[in-house]
C-alpha cells in the first residue's frame, strides 16, 4: 500500500484547508465514482475493494492502483511538501519510484474530515502517469465531487 499526502503541509503536518467542502457519510469507496477511477487509471476495468476505513481501486489490466483512506491521521508519513489539490492544501506523503501519496484535511478539528490517497504504479508500464500524479488526480476528483 502506498502512503498519501495532501497540500498545505508544514512542520506539524498538513494545515487545515480553507474550504467549505466536507466529506459525506459513507465508506471510502463512496468518495470516488468508478468512472473517475477508470479515467485516472486509464482503464475500463477498475476493481473496487472496500476494507474498513479504506478502499482500493485497482486496474485489472496491470499493476497500477490507488487506495483512498478516510478519517486516518497520516501526518507521520508526510514529507513537509505542500501540495495544492483543487485549491485545497494537502501534504505529500513519503514517495518511492513506484508509490506516492497525498493527505488532505478539510477540517483539522474533525478527524472525519480528512482523507488520503496512496498510489502504486508500474514504472515503465502502460499507465502514462507517475504515482504522485495518480494520487493527486484521485484527490482532486474526490474534492471536486464534494458538495459545498
What are its keywords?
148 residues; alpha+beta; Protein Transport Mog1p, Chain A; two-stranded antiparallel ribbon; 34% strand; globular; disordered N terminus
Structural commentary:
- By secondary structure, this protein is of the alpha+beta class.
- It has one domain: Protein Transport Mog1p, Chain A (3-Layer(aba) Sandwich).
- Helices cover 15% and strands 34% of the residues.
- It has helices spanning 34-40, 131-145, and strands spanning 9-10, 13-14, 46-51, 54-59, 65-70, 78-85, 88-93, 99-105, 114-120.
- Strands 3-4-5-9-8-7-6 form a seven-stranded antiparallel β-sheet, with helices on one face. A two-stranded antiparallel ribbon has the order 1-2.
- It is globular.
Per-chain topology:
Elements lengths: L8 E2 L2 E2 L19 H7 L5 E6 L2 E6 L5 E6 L7 E8 L2 E6 L5 E7 L8 E7 L10 H15 L3
Antiparallel strand pairs: 1-2, 3-4, 4-5, 5-9, 6-7, 7-8, 8-9
Q: Note the quaternary state here.
A: single chain
Strand content is 25-35%
pLDDT below 50 for ≥5 consecutive residues: which ranges?
A: 1-17
Could you please say which CATH topology applies here? Answer: Protein Transport Mog1p, Chain A
- Biggest beta sheet attributes: 7 strands, antiparallel
Query: How is the largest sheet built, in terms of strand order?
Result: 3-4-5-9-8-7-6
CATH class category label: Alpha Beta
Q: How many beta-strand elements?
A: 9
CATH architecture, by name, is 3-Layer(aba) Sandwich
Helix proportion: 10-25%
Helical region count?
A: 2
Q: Any idea what the shape is?
A: globular
Mean pLDDT: 87
As for the number of domains, it is: 1
SSE succession: EEHEEEEEEEH
First and last CA, distance: 30 Å
Taking all Cα atoms into account, the compactness measure Rg is 14 Å
The SS-based structural class is alpha+beta
Amino acid at each position: 500500500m502506498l502512503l498519501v499526502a495532501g497540500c498545505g503541509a508544514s512542520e506539524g503536518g498538513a494545515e487545515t484547508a480553507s474550504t467549505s467542502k466536507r466529506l459525506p457519510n459513507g465508506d471510502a469507496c463512496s468518495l470516488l465514482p468508478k468512472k473517475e477511477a477508470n479515467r485516472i487509471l486509464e482503464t475500463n476495468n477498475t476493481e473496487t475493494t472496500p476494507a474498513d476505513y479504506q478502499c482500493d481501486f485497482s486496474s485489472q489490466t496491470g499493476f497500477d492502483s490507488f487506495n483512498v483512506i478516510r478519517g486516518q491521521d497520516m501526518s507521520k508519513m508526510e514529507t513537509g511538501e505542500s501540495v495544492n489539490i483543487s485549491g485545497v492544501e494537502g501534504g505529500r506523503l513519503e514517495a518511492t519510484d513506484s508509490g506516492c501519496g497525498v493527505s488532505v484535511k478539510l477540517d483539522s478539528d474533525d478527524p472525519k474530515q480528512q482523507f488520503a490517497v496512496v498510489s502504486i504504479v508500474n514504472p515503465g508500464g502502460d499507465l502514462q502517469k507517475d504515482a504522485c500524479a495518480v494520487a493527486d488526480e484521485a484527490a482532486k476528483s474526490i474534492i471536486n465531487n464534494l458538495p459545498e
